[in-house]
Amino acid sequence: MASRRALRVARAVAAKRSERLFLAGGVVRDLLLGRPIRDVDLVVEGDALAFARELALRLGARTRVHARFGTATLGLPSGGNLDVAASRCERYERPGALPDVDPGAPIEADLGRRDFAINALALELGPRPRVLDPFAGREDLKRGVVRALHEGSFRDDPTRALRAVRYANRLGFRLEPATRRSIVAAMEEGALDLISADRLRRELRLLLEEPERARALGILQGLTIDAAIHPRLGQRPGAIARLRRAEAWADRFPGAKTWVCYLLSWMGEATEEEVRGVADRLGVSGPERRRLLEWPDTVALFPAGIARQAPSERRNAARNLSPDELVALSCRLGTADARALRDAAPGSPGAGLSIRGSDLVSAGVAPGPSIGRALDRTRAALEDGRIAPAEQLAFALRAARREDS
Length: 405
Known about the structure:
This protein is an alpha+beta fold and 405 residues long. It has four domains: 4-140, 2-Layer Sandwich (Beta Polymerase, domain 2); 144-229, Orthogonal Bundle (Hydrophobic Seed Protein); 231-344; 357-404, no CATH class. It has 22 helices and eleven strands. The chain has helices at 4-17, 26-33, 48-59, 107-112, 137-143, 153-156, 159-171, 177-188, 197-208, 213-222, 225-229, 239-249, 259-267, 272-282, 286-293, 295-301, 311-318, 323-330, 335-344, 357-362, 369-383, 392-404; strands at 20-24, 41-45, 62-66, 71-75, 81-86, 88-91, 100-103, 122-124, 130-132, 145-146, 174-175. The strands form three sheets. The protein has a seven-stranded mixed β-sheet. A two-stranded antiparallel ribbon has the order 6-7. The longest helix is centred in the last third of the chain and has 15 residues, at 369-383. It is elongated and about 85 Å long. The chain starts with a helix and ends with a helix.
């Protein structure tokens, strides 16, 4: 969270400019719930960019302006960001479009444009701080409910459907019945088809980057959002169980896991046509797209029963796979196979050699690529139990000399 000093300075700047200043949105929600604060949003009834420039000057902060929405992000010297926006109204020219912004609205109108009542809260940072709650958001917090502010919310901005799932999942809340009905109706009308692949991917990524993905997928399925994202995602048998296993196995594989890990786990066994359709719908590019498109071939490399393969064979097959792919593979295998795959993963302890190339050179082998190949063969023999640890050097020397003969 932004430092106390930053907020004190912000209040002083607002008082000097005779502008009302508020904390708004999720920060107020999380303060009331006693949860850790992720982001700090300041709302000014006035010229937000002029306010942000003056505040940045006093704090020695870097400023990044978002011209379309008249907002700014301040990078604080102590770390963290502070977002500044003018209180505003929004109009949607058509369903699914980005809104047209009208700055200068009263704070009550600004709160009325937001997605859910639990986010339509503001804390006035004046001489007498007070909470503004025009839509009974505090009552929803007590009841553990996510409630949309108006019936057409998910037609105006279909990404709010995924946001509703994310908040319900993160907070352990339930969706208010009318909100559930509105989401389902919007999905049946094809609301998600009206937004760009980039916006859809960003929201899905945020959802899959938070814990309890299996629970989130259960909520998505109940609202038919999974099929609305792409029909094939709505037809994945065992998807919830795979996500639950993926979360359980993620910490057992070395390396960082990303949202792609859970998307692959969700898909399970999939055809080339299916993964290409999902990649196109989500606008996935770069290495992430490559992992998706290669997924059917990756799955084929690791059938059930791989625990019976030679360890060196498994390690060779797994050597170029990312942690995302390894975890997604493990969640569709039995426990013994998943453990064998974990032991074959790059970075896992496996069978380590106690000899080096320099040992072979000292024994008379000429430097060159034959040494690397000899060490690879020795490692495989050690992993497969064909030689004892004490036999490494002798085996490597024989292998290197055969290479050079």
